[in-house]
Amino acid sequence: MSRIGRKPIEIPKGVTVQVTQNKVEFKGPKGTLAIDIKHPITVTVDGTTLTVVRPDDTSTNRSLHGLTRALLSNMVDGVAKGFERKLLITGVGYRATLDGKRLSMALGFSHPVYVEPPNGISFEVGKTQTDITIRGIDKALVGQVAANIRKLKESEPYKGKGIRYEDEVIRRKAGKSVSGGK
Fold it and tell me: For the chain (length 182 residues), average pLDDT per consecutive 10?
């Protein structure tokens, strides 16, 4: 039995769960999320807990069991508390500002780079204009938007200029070394 899949999911106060035949819908203070459940997996609600059950131990069902439980748990957390991901911008002249809802960044290119937030995502820029916070209720979408922004100008290893995650460590390399000269 899957160690992750067999753990029950606690449903916090303020979150309602509606289970139909192959769909689970969560409503909470932050918003609404829904997911379609693959056929052999079943989801049941017992008071304040949500359990995921698989019919047999085939390889496909075992992998779907843990995956479904993890996705449901993330959705419960998302509609209750929400998710956020922080990015840091390093480099002389590199900065970010909010232009309405969209993010405008100066990243050393000849033009500003604009990022439109998808539905359910909001941006926040700190006072120093070098830190960006991405917030939303869908964990996968928050992570994907953060990865797309980071990809615009990844941190390079020589000077460390670029965009990185808050908890990411950039391994710095030594530059050109001066030889003894002949």
Answer: 82 93 93 93 92 91 92 95 96 94 95 95 95 96 97 93 94 77 56
Whether 107 and 157 map to the same domain: the answer is yes
Residue 2 has a pLDDT of: 60
Count of CB atoms within 10 A of residue 150's CB? 19
Do the beta carbons of residue 101 and residue 38 sit within 8 Å? no
**pTM for this prediction:** 0.88
Separation between Cα atoms, residue 103 and residue 164, nearest integer Å: 16
Structure tokens at 119: 């539905």
Residue for token pair 């780079």: 113
CATH of residue 118's domain is 3.90.930.12
How many domains would you assign to the chain?
Answer: 2
- pLDDT of 179: 56
Token pair in block for residue 3: 């160690």
| Helices assigned H by DSSP within the chain | 59-80, 139-152
Residue 4 lies in a domain: no
Question: Which of 37, 55, 80 is the endpoint of a domain?
Answer: 80
Q: Are 17 and 26 in contact (CB under 8 A)?
A: yes
Query: How many angstroms separate the CA atoms of 78 and 175, rounded?
Result: 44
